[in-house]
Design brief:
By secondary structure, this protein is α/β, with parallel strands linked by helices. The chain is built from 6 helices and 9 strands; from the N terminus they run ββααβαβαββββαβα.
Length: about 200
């Protein structure tokens, strides 16, 4: 499925020749609605504020969670011109290689954005950027001390300790006035080191 993506400020789906070869499955559509991006993707209205500053998205392995986050990032890049989006995995090898988020992003965004392999980031024609980030060790969070992001997307969030997530969320701040409110999305399977904090913060 191809969704048309536009270039005009706060308008998606009506514009002018940019295409992302992705369309949401039903659960992914619910995620976009929770993030305030579903109508913008369809070109039926502007993006709106998310339902919460932290949004959980769970399911079994191979349930489309990673792909949903990438699709969300692409929609946000056009809906919120100039925004900064970070896509997180615990280790860099989880981002690269066959089936990884970077490889999939090349399939999705090569026709509408420019990829800098050295910095592992996409730049969209709206001025938005998508960064691939990792924090294998708790001390690695300080590599991002000076960074801020409008949207943080944690893929397999329970692979992160709460100390890592808690610190990184202090940098989840608006960098542009095109986004109503900064937010984060946490995808997960049951278990792993972050299982308890994920359950507690989700209540």
């Amino acid at each position: 499925v191809q969704e048309r993506m536009g270039k005009k400020r706060r308008q998606m789906g009506r514009m002018d020749g940019y295409h992302i070869p992705w369309g949401p499955q039903p659960k992914q559509a619910e995620l976009l609605k929770a993030c305030g991006l579903y109508d913008a993707m369809l070109g039926k209205g502007p993006a709106v504020a998310p339902i919460a500053p932290m949004i959980g998205y769970g399911g079994a392995a191979y349930g489309g969670k990673s792909d949903g986050l990438l699709g969300l990032a692409g929609v946000a890049a056009f809906a919120f011109p100039g925004c900064r989006v970070r896509f997180w995995r615990r280790t860099f090898p989880e981002l690269e290689g066959a089936g990884g988020a970077i490889e999939r992003s090349l399939e999705l965004f090569s026709g509408c954005a420019s990829y800098n392999a050295g910095f592992h980031q996409w730049e969209f024609p709206t001025g938005s950027r998508l960064y691939f980030c990792h924090s294998q060790h708790e001390a690695d969070v300080h590599n991002y001390q000076s960074q801020q992001a409008d949207i943080d997307l944690f893929d397999e969030a329970t692979s992160f300790t709460w100390k890592i997530v808690d610190y990184l969320l202090t940098r989840n701040r608006a960098t542009t006035d095109t986004i109503p409110k900064p937010f984060s999305v946490m995808t997960t399977n049951p278990g792993n080191v972050g299982h308890v904090w994920y359950i507690v913060t989700g209540k």
